[in-house]
Each structure stands twice: as structure tokens, then as C-alpha cells.
Amino acid sequence: MTSELFTALPLRTGQVLRNRIAKAAMEENMAGDGQLPDRRLPTLYRRWAAGGAGLLITGNVMVHAEALTGPGGVVLDEHAPLEPFAAWAEAGKSAGGAIWMQINHPGRQVPSGMPGVVWGPSDIAVDLGRHSGRFGRPTAMTPRQIEDTVARFAVTARRAEEAGFDGVEVHAAHGYLLSQFLSPLVNTRTDRWGGSLENRARLLLDVVRAVRAGRPADDRTTAREAYFLHLAEELVGTSALPLMLTGGITRRATAERVLDSGVAVVGMGTELAVTPDLPDRWRDDREADRRMAPVTWSDKTLASAAGMAQVRHQMRRLARGAAPRPGTHPALALLSEQRKQRAALRRYRAWLSGDRRGGELPGTRARSGGDLIVLTHDTAAERRRGGK
Description:
45% of the residues are buried. Helix 2 (83-92) links the parallel strand 5 and strand 6 (98-104). The longest helix is centred in the C-terminal third of the chain and has 23 residues, at 330-352. Helices cover 37% and strands 10% of the residues. It is of the alpha/beta class.
């Protein structure tokens, strides 16, 4: 009997995902010259496409050239040439699946020492205890800057579609700008973007509306694995859109249990960096041969950074056409990542000091692909804290 994992999922926009397995967004930090995709990203995504997933979601692409999550970030704005993005999209679709671009603005989560701007809903800095100096001090955004940011998201979404991407994922999690506006702990504004939930959600909803403009409306271990499944089960009955669940899905049995709950798509990140053909393995009733061990250092902030560095190390190996090597020591991966970030920062400084700082962006309209709600790590965490 065919598993539900390998049945098609029609979305209300008419797009059809060929199966229920998605490669979730993971930040690649692989921008080439001019903060553009180079040959590494198409190589990496062609490898993932060949692995059998129905949907590939890219790591976050920046909508604002002067606000990056790191110097290796890719930028798609009004000035960027589309050819490198078209090559990326073509690679992601090369085996018959779909590819969506995750689009993002970091807000206050810009590393210290980066050129450009550090913005937030308020001037409240990131608090990481003794690691708080990793990020710059934000300035509160003006109404004009907020309105321009909505336009930037729309520009990036439109240009992603022009390049051949099947849709976009608007990043409103992980403490980045849209998430910052939602949080009453970070957003202490007293104007139309602060205070009530309606006001705090205004920026996110304006971005979604701008991205959708022109798009026709619709008629209407088990404890650790799939660790947001309980939340998803609560939302399935009330959501008008199909849900995608990411986090802790490593085995086919777990993925099938997620679908049995009513979730439409299962998303994986780290597992596909280590075993890019995992969807095809599941189709053949096989599991991954190896998994990446968690980093268990006592300093949780450094452990998290090392874990992300390990994943990026695997992605870079795939992008070179090499096999993953999940046994790489986390300290070595972190040191290698820091060296690469320093080199990328030098390139980014030189690039940004050119003529990229143009005038204000005009308003625009854009379209996105199929609608899907993605439940990720801090979505559940906020729900557990009783956030509104």
C-alpha cells in the first residue's frame, strides 16, 4: 500500500506538490560575489531535488541589502540580476518537485560589526547574557521605514516568481523582524504598530497582503520526535490552510504519524543535509545510515552556533559535490564557519560601499505560490509561554 507520504497535495492556488515531504528552510550562508547565488547553491539544490522531496524551501533570502543576518546572506532586491536566481530555481525543480524561496528581514538580529542598518520595532537589544554583544544595538523604525519594508518584501516576492520560484515563504519566526513586531517583549511601540495584538500583527499582515496582491482569493524517540505535533493537532481543526510541521522528524514512522494527525506536509532540515536522498530511501522502506549527534556543550548559545555550523558544513560539502561527513567535530565546524564569515564580511563591506544605497523603494505588487502554514520551533515555544 502506498504511504500517504507519497501522495500529491493540491494547494488552493492550483499548485500541486508531488508528495508530502519538504526540505525545510535552512540558512545556507553561501552568497557569492554581489550577495548573489553562485554555482554552489544550484549544485546543492539539484542534489536535494534528486533526493525525492516534493518541496524544497530555500534558506532566508534578504529583502534589504543593508540588513543581513550575516555577511554570507543572499540578497534579492530591485537591483539584483535575475539570472543567478533563475539557475537556482531551475536546479530546485530539476527532478519534478517545487521550490519556494524563504524571504526575510533580520530586524535587530544583525551581527555586531556588520555595515548597514540595525532596525527593530523598538530600541530593545537582543539579550543573550554574556553573548549579547554578538548583535548590534537596534534603532526603532520610523513609519516610513516600516512602509518601505513592506514594499521590499513585495519586490522580492515578485522577482522570485519572475526567476521561476513556485512560491515564497514569509519568515515570521526565529526572532527576526516580523517576529519582533509580534512580540510584546520586543515591541513596545505606542503607535499603530504596537500595543494590541492587532497592531503588533499589522506589519506581518501588510507584508502578506502585499505579496498576495493580484492573486485570486479562495472560496473559503517519540517524545523528542515531531516535538510540535501536539500543537499541530490543536491547529488542524481550525486552520483554513494546510499545515506543514518541522522539527524533530527523522524517521518515516514519525513522518507518517504526523500526517495521520491531519498535518499536510512534513518538513526536514538537518536530516536532509546529512542524507539528501532520504525521501527516496523512505519510498524504498530504508532509513538514514547516519545522523548528526547533538552538540551538548554546557554553554547553550555556543552549542547552538556549533550545531548550525555543523549543518552548514554538510551543505557546503553537498554544494561542492562531495558526500556529507556528519562526524565533523562541532568545534572545528564552528571555527571554520567563523573564518568563512570573516571573509564574507570583507566582501560584503566592499560591495555595500558601492552604489547599492539608492533612493526609497516605490510601492509594488507581487504574487506568491501556494499557501501553506509552517509550524517551526519558536511558533510552539511562544504558544507554550502563553504569548498572544
